[in-house]
Each structure stands twice: as C-alpha cells, then as structure tokens.
Specification:
With 425 residues, the chain is an alpha+beta fold. It has 15 helices and 10 strands. Strand 2 and strand 3 form a beta hairpin. Helix 5 runs antiparallel to helix 6 and helix 14 runs antiparallel to helix 15.
Length: 425
Amino acid sequence: MGIGKLSLRTELSRRVKWVIGDKEKFVVLLQDLKDYNDGLEQLFPPSRLATLHRTWTNELLEDAHRDLGKLNMLESASSGVYPGLNVSASLKQLRINLDEKDTKNFKPTYALKIQRSALKITNKEASRVHGTYSNPSLAEPQAIVVEWVDYDKEDLDTRLNHLRRIDDLARMIHSASNRHPDLHTVDCLGYTDDSSSSRYGLIYATPSSHTSSSTLNSLILSNDFRTPDLGDRFKLAHTLAVALWSLHSLDWLHKNLCSSNVLFFPSAYSRSSTVTTATSNIPDISTPYLLGFDASRPDQMGEMSIASKNSTAEDLHRHPSSLNTSMAMPRKPYCKPYDIYSLGLILLEIGLWKTLQTYHKSHYSVERFRDKMVLQNLVPGLGSKTGRLYREVVERCLCVREDLGSGEVGQLFEFVVGSLESLRV
C-alpha cells in the first residue's frame, strides 16, 4: 500500500468492498491498517496521522452505509484495535435503530426524562441558560446548561414529533459525548418538559462543573479581550472541522452551525478575573464545545426537522438555499454541504476575528451578502491575515456544491482537516 493519501483512499475503498461482508478477512484488513499506521509513525509526526485515522473511519462507515449487520461487524472487529471506529460504528447503529422506530409507537426514554421542578434556572427567557440540577444520584446540585425548543401545545401530532426528536437527540448526544471526543460535545443528561412555557429543554452537564460560558461570537465581538494568537485560532478551526466531520460520519446533520453555538467553559470574563498574568486579557479558545443541536436531524430524506428559532445574525451562517421559502423556489432538503458552508463562515470569522454581523447591512439579501460581501470582498482579503492555505480552505467550504455525494464530502473534509492540521505559525 503506497503512502500517498489518494492511493490509501483508493486501496482502502477497494479492499473494504471486498472484505466487509467477511469478519475474518475484515479483522485481517484492520490489522494491516494498524501495521501500516505503525510504519507511518516512523515517517510522519503523530499530528499528521490523525487525519489518516479519520479518513479510514469515514471510508469504512460510508461503505457500511445503513447495513446494521456490517456496522455490527465493524464494531466488533475494531474492538481493541481502533477505538474511534468502534465507537462510531456503535453510534451509527444507535442512530439507525432510532430512525426506524415508528413515531406512533414511540415511548420516551424514562432514564432521560428530568422533572422541571428539579432544575433551578435564573434567566428564564433566554434560549440557552445556565442553572443547576438536583440530581438524585448526586449529593450536590449539578451545574448545567439548558437549551430550549418551543412547541405548539395545541398541535398534538407536531408536539409528538418534537418529543421524539428531542428524545432521539438526547440519546445520541448522551451516548456520544464521553466516548467520542472528536465530536466535542458536552454530556447530555436528558431533557425536560416545561409545559407552562410550551417548550422542551435539552439539559447538558457543564465541563468541570463550570457555572458560566462564553460563545465564540461573544468573544469576537467583545472589546475587553485581545485577539488570540494565529496559531491558537488555527487549532480552533481544526477542532471545529474535526467535530463536523465526525458528526457527518454518523450521517447526522447539525443544521444550526454558527459561532453562537460554539461554547467555551468557563466564561472568559470569570477566567480573566482569576488570572493576573500578562495574557489574562487573551481568551482561552483551546477547548471549544459544539452545542445548538436543537434543530439537528439525521441525514435522511423525509426526516422531520425541528424549526430553529434564530435571530437574523445567526441566519447569516446558513446557506441561502436552506433559507429560501418562496413558492417559485421552495426550500431544499437540508444536506451536508449546507453544514460545510456554515463551517466555512465560522472559519472566516476565526481568521478575520470579526463577526459576520460586522459586515452585514439590513438591506442585503442572503444571496447578495454571500456573493458580494463574503466571496468578493472578505475571502480575498483573508490570505494576507492567515496565509494562502487557510484562505483556500475557507473558499472550498463556501463554494461547496449542493449536490456533493458522500464520497466527495469525505474527500473535502480530508482536505479541510488535513490542511488545517498542517498549518504552523
């Protein structure tokens, strides 16, 4: 097997199609990959190998598609050899099993239902709030973040669909958070029904019991902090690209990707008040967490999505085709390229360290903002601040074709993640 990435992808795809139905042969293939990887460690630094691991995982999951038998074989054959593949295959099986349940026969997961009375929340109006949960299994109240999703209590059918989607989301994120670090999510404890306000709340345990957080959007907008070093921003961009690639490897769409849904714990303000060094006014962006899964859904035709109530500022991160609701040009089903487009806009904000709101005018249509401001003005000027390769990564994300197939999506992610991984200051 050659050491080039293209030859690796071609050879892996060919061999997977040949052996994926035979567990014994597949175990041999995984061992070959492990031996191959051990050889590469002599040639390349460890950071370069991570992208190859993710490429293998994505290729194997893609070839298994929605075949539960093949995914089960992937899970068992990779146990003890490739933990990342083992967990991904397990999560993809869970997702498929959730998809195939009829909504009419849906029963909420009892272990994930949390009584509203067990939550103590200060700001009751915001769509994302901090608070505490009196967890009966813990001696002390648990620090949490709650994200609310409104429902119409008069429309029982739609409400049932909302409840099922929230239950499925809680099960996926609950299972994924600790076992799949590449997703960069926080552990979902469950969900609650705040019936007095006609809304469901997804409940997350905050990392290290922090009681505050900052969003990427708020850090960029703030005048109280200096711009983080370029190298740290490259690492942040890489981490977020890895998170989306991992989510897509499960055929799951985020559908609400924006800088307001990238969180850091604790709040940069509370952190800076306890640090007295010269770098105290530089926000720590080393550990981002991806939230905002309220509108997330599987990548499958016919899947109902929860309509996300976002401000115009957050809609700026959405692909124009995903927002079009006119009769002449109806909105298209959400797809992976729309998430990739949103990622490109976040990477643009990270590179410029300016939010999209800074450049948006109220009279701009979403198409005009993309074509005239983003692509013709902001992207060409990005290279002088971040270098040519970072600008090219952003451009590739923003110009992604809407009809990109799964294999092409994997190749694009391999380029994006590999390029960001290679950047040095």
